[in-house]
Design a protein that fits this description.
globular; single chain; mainly alpha; 2 domains; 632 residues
Amino acid sequence: MYAIKGVGQLIAKIIDRSVDISSFLAGIILLAMASITTFEIIARYIFHSPTSWTLDLSVYLLVWFGYLSIVYVQKEDRHVRVDLLISRFSKRTRLIWDALTAIIFFFFTLLLVYYGTGYTVESYESHEYGWSMWRIILWPVKAAIPVGGILLALYLIKYVVEKWIRFRKEPKVEPRGVFDNLTVLIPTFLFLIAIGAYLYTLNGVFGMVVLMLVLLFGGVPIFPALGWVGITGYYLLFGGGNALYSSVPSVVHLSLEHFALVCLPLFVLVGQLIQSSGVSDEIYDTATKWVGHFPGGEAIATILACSIFAAISVSSVATAATIGLVALPALAARKYNKVFSYGLLAAGGTLGIMIPPSGTMIIYSAVTEESLGKLFMAGVVPGAILVCGFIIYAVYFCLRSGEYERLKPVTWGERFRATKAGMWGLLAPVIIMAGIYSGIFTPLESGAIAVFYAIIMVLARGKVKPKDLPKVLADSTLNSTMVLSIMIGAMLLGDFITLMKVPDMAMSVVESLRLSPWGVMVMVMLMYLGLGMFLEVISCMLITLPVIYPLITSLGFDGVWFAVLVTLNMEMALITPPVGLNLYVITGIASTPLANVLRGVFPFFLIMVAGLILIALFPALSTWLPGIMVRR
């Protein structure tokens, strides 16, 4: 990195130090959320004295967690963006483009700071209290917005300066085409932004779509891109500055003030602890010992390991990466077809967002208010169906091609020893699922208990050293906030969509087309498949659900069943180019061309299509288990 010199260097160091402190505090807040939720469990079951404040405090802490750690995501340059076009830029052009999009991000952040400060001051002056039984003063909670925003704004200034310095020192080259000519690219981009804003005045929905596409495909991080689309609509169509003052701060505050979202960083932390500790190796070894001697046994073990890790982690990308690092060398050693192995792992990783706990289900619950416990249970049977489908194909492929080396059966003693070592990791999903299904724990409480179990387990077994725990917390904070930040921007967009009555418009369009409810459902599924080719999973859901969910439920479809269909569509998106993240994870791990991964994953994609049709035709596959929970 090209350093900033003189006084600027001192300021840059202060900013970096402030970011490090905010990241550390976010990690402490994450542990605090797990601790107070665990305290509630102890108070309820041991002392028979349930609290009235732990859930509220967890939610308020999540607000601080999210806004404190957004700047850390920027420091690690991990804010999600659509890079289909900007990835074609030369290095020198990309430096200026990154600076330009950071400036757009910076002005969005200034708006959050300005309106967030006013929101906080107003709460302080009015002595505002929360509405729950625990009458907490709210201005310290709302102060998270300006505090986090100021840190982010300062870091964005540093980021832009560094990009400019690097640009100045980068050797000049002649532009090689339209994707390398800044004198064409920048004016065109700004002109398209202006056109998008102007179109709001002609047709709000059309202007919203155009501006969103311009910002997203222009490489602006999804968080500020979605936020800008909503803010532009507020300003131009609903009262200018007054609309911004009345809407922006309350929406960005309430976007994280949701109990379902508290689960997300807790489950991410559990997965991060298992991933960082090497316990995933033990899980894979256990699966291999039990099924490795079957035809295609190593492939079966890989699928089972993916499904087990999926029941720990909320992330499909983490599942593909974690199991991939272990399984790819093992599959290669047993002479499995390489292309098949790549597809197996890319598809197996997608199980992370179907088998509970599921990150997509958490987001779905936060947006739609569907029961998170029901949503988690709804994914169990469909997840098992996908696992069985993958295993059947894996066995068929291996028997047909003969490209594998069959393992010799191991003794029962070896199996039990492997299980004894692996059971520490296997207990994590048992705690989560058994707690939720039995009704002993809520999803949030299961996450908190699983966090403490995972921390004690990896520390007691020496899998993670105490000095390494801050790094694990930082990594989980990063992965959680990447999603939470998108949630903030998407809620600004979603509120504008609601004000525009877009769901009512969508319903009117559907009625005018005279389609049957199932015809609408087919269109929606095709839409998700298409969007998933270009948008990251969480972004795709947050952009569409405020419109699609009311439409689908108004047609008489079950919201929990629809969540499974959406999740399965998002699984397919993870292995669909050009944005399928699991494809690139396996490409990176295996150091192989993307074409090889695509060839390997195609049969598994067809299995998912068949699974989608099966679950659509037989809704009970999704609703049976949640229905049992209700009757209990």
